[in-house]
Amino acid sequence: MTLKRLALLLSMVLILVLVASYWLIRMLVIIPILEREVASLQWHETLAVRQYFSQQQMLLSDLAISPGYDHWAKSVLEGGDATSRLTRGAEVAMAFGPDLSLRSFLAHDSREPDHFPILVGEAAYQRARLMPTMLPEREMVKTGLLWLGGNLYSYSASTVCSLNKLGCTLGYLLLLKPMPVSEVESNFTRLGIRVTARPARSEDLALPRLMNLTGLDEPVRQRDLLIRDSLSQGAWVLSIVYSAQVQHGVERREWIAFVLLLLLLPTTNFLLWRIFVTPIEFGSDQLLQMERERQYRKLTVNMYVKEFQHLVNAFNGLIGRVEKQRQQLQDLSQTDSLTGLANRRGMDHFAVREWRRLCRARYGGAVMMLDIDDFKAYNDEFGHQAGDDCLVCVARELKRVARRGEDIACRYGGEEFCTIYVEVQPETVEKLAESLRRHIEKLHKSTALLKRPISASIGVALVEPGVDLVKQFHDFDQLVRIADQQLYLAKQNGKNQVRMWRLSTAATEKPA
Ligand SMILES: Nc1nc2c(ncn2[C@@H]2O[C@H](COP(=O)(O)OP(=O)(O)OP(=O)(O)O)[C@@H](O)[C@H]2O)c(=O)[nH]1
Predict the structure, then answer these.
(1) I need a labelling partner for 154 at 20 to 30 A (CA). Which of 144, 192, 195, 301 fits?
(2) Are 152 and 197 in contact (CB under 8 A)?
(3) Long-range CB pairs of 371-375, under 8 A, 24+ apart, other chains included
(4) What's the start-to-end Cα distance of the chain, in Å?
(5) Which residues, at least 6 apart from 189, have a Cβ–Cβ distance to it below 8 Å?
(6) Residue 374 CB less than 6 A away from ligand 1
(7) Could you read off the pLDDT of 186-226 as tens digits, one per residue?
(8) Which atom of ligand 1 lies closest to the CA of 338?
(9) Separation of 193 CA from ligand 1 center, angstroms?
(10) 107-140 pLDDT, tens per residue?
(11) Does residue 371's CB lie within 6 angstroms of at least one atom of ligand 1?
(12) CA 373 to ligand 1: nearest atom
């Protein structure tokens, strides 16, 4: 798998992990917390509804036990105006407005005071035939909610005594306060709660009761609560649609966040690409190129990631050390250990490089072969060590005359040396060769290493600037062979002399 694909895959996995994590946190943490919160809020909203209804009943209850109630009730029952201020106790009822109505009825069964038969209207009043005076000590005041003729009422029922031929008959006064459904609904609309009421059906009787708010821990959108009417033994259902809701579905904001997250994909991919892929690709391309060319260099890549940069630094350090060791090995393999000059391999290496330049630039050059005369005799006379010292002394002289960067002096083998001069004037080479010969002649005077005077024969192959070498020679060795031939001629001619072969642009002569 390529790094590009890996980066793409990683960024996709990253997004998926983000979405999955969000989803899990939402389902396992946020929603349960929300549900608890909403359940608590809904509980309070239910409580507010219950309190509203309780308050309505309490108001009637307060009215029924207030001191002016009896007189007011009596006058109203006898046809007085319920809202008249002249009626004693009317102020008690004034708080309820003109909607308040008072009904009376006889106790159906005084043994069951909790269950009043509902008798309303004129008939009930006639049957009650109330005495002009009410019993001051009413046995009880009962309050509740009543669904009557399609309307909702809050009521209070209190006992009264009606005198007739049979004596005192227990009766009831029913104080009714209409609670229009629209009014109830609008009362809760301002709280964000929607409340509707309807008569209960038989299947509704199992619903939880409004006045008993236990077991309402689960948040729901709408809750139906049963209100039992103890007067009529009827029941009705109050439906509460809560303002506090748990949104289980994915919200628009979440979709937007999800889309933004998807848009993050190319962004994260780009960042992964820039931070990881591009530098690594660049580095690996460099490594592949090095492998192809078999030339190892330091990586020139800047990693953004610290650890990767450490790897690059370590690689570069390693390459640096290997290159240094390779250079040392190359130097060693191309250096003569006795004299410190380049050996034959070193000379070949140099020659191949310079030959190309020589051919291309035609700046001229020279190969000088030098051989110590009668070195065997010197060796035999003073020993091998003295012979080595002699070689070292001659090598120093060669170094001295080939000190320019472009020149190279090397030990060609045994007591034979070779110096290559590039970009040099012919006269200079002549002078250098002759001066070298003379210096070697007088060398014993300047160093104690030499036991006696020595001499050297020199053969030179000189190519003047401008000569087209390609036309004349196959390779550099041809020049070396010519110089060697000149050396041979110098030896033949009596040694301790310089023999020079020269190729000028004008000359057409072939080497001898
Ligand atoms: N001490 C020492 N002697 C060496 C070394 N390499 C070669 N020789 C000796 O150099 C001598 C070369 O002798 P020859 O080839 O006969 O040449 P020559 O005696 O110089 O005679 P001409 O070249 O004709 O002047 C041999 O005796 C080799 O043993 C070396 O590294 N150290």
Answers:
(1) 192
(2) yes
(3) 371/415, 371/416, 371/417, 371/456, 371/457, 371/487, 371/491, 372/415, 372/440, 372/454, 372/455, 372/456, 373/454, 373/455, 373/456, 373/457, 373/491, 373/495, 373/496, 374/495, 375/414, 375/415, 375/454
(4) 67
(5) none
(6) yes
(7) 888 888 899 888 888 989 988 988 888 787 888 888 999 99
(8) 31
(9) 121
(10) 443 333 333 333 333 433 444 444 333 444 444 5
(11) yes
(12) 25
CA of 436 to the centre of ligand 1 (A): 20
Nearest to 495 by CA among 441, 419, 444: 441
With a 6 A CB cut-off, is 379 part of the ligand 1 pocket?
yes
CB-ligand 1 contact for 416 (6 Å cutoff): no
Q: Which atom of ligand 1 is nearest to the CA of 380?
A: 27
Question: Would you state the structure tokens that stand for residue 404, as one six-digit string?
Answer: 């320019």
Nearest CA to ligand 1 atom 21: 374
Residue 415 a catalytic site member: yes
- Return the structure tokens found at 328: 């040392």
Asked if CATH classification 3.40.50.300 holds for the domain at 334-503, the reply, yes or no, is no
pLDDT of residue 83: 54
Domain range summary for the chain, segments of one domain joined by +: 1-249, 266-323, 334-503
Residue 372 CA to ligand 1 centre (angstroms): 8
Identified catalytic residue from 415, 416, 441, 464: 415
Would you say the CB of residue 229 lies under 6 angstroms from ligand 1? no
Token readout for 331 is 């130097």
Q: What is the pLDDT of residue 222?
A: 92
Q: Residue 340: which of 408, 422, 439, 432 has the closest Cα?
A: 408
